[in-house]
Amino acid sequence: MTRNERANFGSKLGVILASAGSAVGLGNIWRFPFETGNHGGAAFILIYLVCVLILGIPIMIAEFLIGRRSRANTAGAYQKLAPGTQWRWVGRMGVLTGFLILGYYSVVAGWTLEFIGEAATNSFAGKSPAEFIASFNGFVSNPWRPVIWLILFLLATHFIIVKGVEKGIEKSAKIMMPLLFILLIVLAVCAVSLPGAGAGIEFLLKPDFSKVDGNVFLGAMGQAFFSLSLGMGCLCTYASYFRNDTNLSRTALNVAGIDTLVAILAGFIIFPAAFSVGIQPDAGPSLLFITLPNVFQQAFGNIPWLAVILSLMFYILLALAALTSTISLHEVVTAYLHEEFNFTRGKAAKLVTAGCILLGVLCSLSLGVGKDYTIGGLNLFDLFDFVTAKIMLPLGGFLISVFIGWYLDKKIVWEEVSNNGALNVHIYKLFIFILKFIAPVGIVLIFINELGLFK
Ligand code: TRP
Residues 225-235, buried b or exposed e (16+ Cβ, 10 A)? Predict the structure, then answer.
C-alpha cells in the first residue's frame, strides 16, 4: 500500500481533536475519580501528574513517530521499522490489549446510555443516596439491560468506523470535544458550590502521604497510560493518518494537556459532590454513577426542568466522550485485520465488533449472574481492567521506550520529531534521555515495588 492511498486527517485541529478524543473518555471522568478515591486523593494525583510528564508525554511522542514513519497499523509498523525481528510482537500485543480494553470499556459505555434514559425521564427525582446505590447495583447486575446497551454502543462505534477516518473519526471529534469541555466547567462550578463541598476540594488538593504505598505508584502509572491511550499502539495507529507537517511533540503536549485538564475537572465534579452527600470516595467503579445523579438532584431538584436538561446533556456527552475512545480502540484492531490479513475494511470492522460484543457480554454478566466466577479474586470485568491497565499497557510503554531509545536509528527519530529538520525541537535530547533511561527504569521499578520486593 503506498502512502497516498492511505487515509489522512484533514486538518491540524482535526489531528489534535481526534487524538484528544481518543484520550479523553471514561478514563478521565469515570476511572480517574475512582482510582483517585481508592488511593487517597491528592497524593495520588501528584504522582499521576509526574507519570504523565515523564512517562506519558515522551511515550506519546514515541508512538506518534512510529505510526507516522511507518504509515501502517501498529503490528505492521514494527514490521516495517524492524523487519524480521521479534519487535512485531509489541504491535501484536497492542492489538490484543486494545481488544480486551474495548470488551470491558463498552460495558461502562453502555451504562451511560441507560443513564441518558433515566435522565430524560427524570427518574433521579426524589431519590435518596441509598436509593441511588441500590438502583445502580440492581441495574449492573441485571442480565439483560446492560447487555443490550453495550451492544448498541458497539454498533454505534462500528457505524462510525466504517465511515472512515476523515468523515467519521475526525468529524465526530470536532463536534463533541468542545461541547464536552464547556459542560464539564458548568458542572464543576455547580459541584463546588454544593453545601459541604469543601471536604471534597480538600481531598483533591491536600496530599496525605501516609496513604502512599507501592500500589499507589502502579495505580497512577496505569491510569496515566490508560487515560492517555498509551502503550498499545492506539495513538500510533492514529499517527499513521497524520500529515507530514504535523508537529508531533506539540501535538503530544496539547493532547496530554487537554486530557489532564478534563481529568482534574472531573475530579472537581465528583469529589465535592460525593462528600456533599456523604458518599465514600472509595466507592470504586460505581462512584460516578451514584454521585452524579445525586448532584443533579441536590443542586437542581427544585427546578426540575433544569435538572433534566443538565443531567441529560451530561450523560449524552459522557457517552460521546466514550464513543470517541471506543472508536480509537476499534480502529487499532480493524486497521490490523484490514492491512495484515487483507480483509476489506468493512469485513474487518464486523469481525472486531462481533468479537467485542462477545467479550463485553461476558464482562457485563460477570458483574451479576457470573460474579462467582473469579480469577485471583477478581471477576472478569475487574480482571480485564487490572491486566490491561496495570500490566499490559505499562509493559507496552516499556517496550516502546526501549524500541525508540535503544533500537531505532536515531536519524529516523530525529527526522520524524523535527519534520526533517524543519522544526526546532528544544526538548529532543531530554526526550531521548527519558526514553533511554528514565522511562524503562521507572516502569521496572514500579513493577518491582508492586511485587513488594523492596521490603
Ligand atoms: N484513553 C481513553 C479514556 O481515557 C480510553 C482509551 C482509548 C484507551 N484508547 C486507548 C486506553 C488505548 C488505553 C489504550 O477513556
Answer: bbbbbbbbbbb
Looking at per-residue pLDDT, the higher value among 311 and 105 belongs to 105
Nearest CA to ligand 1 atom 14: 229
pLDDT at 3 over 90: no
CA distance 442 to 55: 8
User: What count of residues does the chain have?
Assistant: 455
Model confidence over 344-396: pLDDT tens digits? 999 999 999 999 999 999 999 999 999 899 999 999 999 999 999 999 999 99
- CA 333/CA 100 separation, integer angstroms: 11
Residue ID of nearest Cα to ligand 1 atom 12: 229
- Residue appearing with cell numbers 502509572: 221
In this structure, how many other beta carbons lie within 10 angstroms of the beta carbon of residue 49? 16
Q: Is the pLDDT of residue 218 over 60?
A: yes
Give tens-digit pLDDT for 284-330. 788 889 888 887 887 777 888 988 988 898 898 899 899 989 999 99
Q: Which three cell numbers stand for residue 358?
A: 462477545
Q: What percent of the chain has pLDDT over 90?
A: 71
pLDDT at 285: 83
Query: 436: burial class by Cβ within 10 Å (0-12, 13-18, 19+)?
Result: middle
Cβ–Cβ under 8 Å, residues 201 and 192: yes
Element (DSSP H or E) covering residue 383: helix 380-385
Q: In this structure, is the dihedral angle defined by the CA atoms of residues 147, 148, 151 and 152, taken in order, positive or negative?
A: negative
Cα gap 192→196, rounded to integer Å:
9
Beta-bridge partners for 190: none
Residue 1 is predicted with a pLDDT of: 39
Residues near ligand 1 with C-beta < 6 Å? 22-23, 25-28, 101, 226-227, 229, 232, 234, 325, 328-329, 393
Cα-trace Rg, the chain? 21
Question: Exposure string (b/e) for 260-290, b if CB count within 10 Å is 16 or more?
Answer: bebbbbbbbbbbbbbbbbebebebebbbbbb
Counting Cα atoms < 13 Å in the Cβ hemisphere of 154 gives 28
Are 401 and 440 a contacting pair, CB within 8 Å? yes
* Closest ligand 1 atom to Cα of 23: 1
- Nearest Cα to Cα of residue 277 among 185, 184, 187, 197: 197
At residue 368, the pLDDT reads: 94
Cα–chain center distance at 227? 4
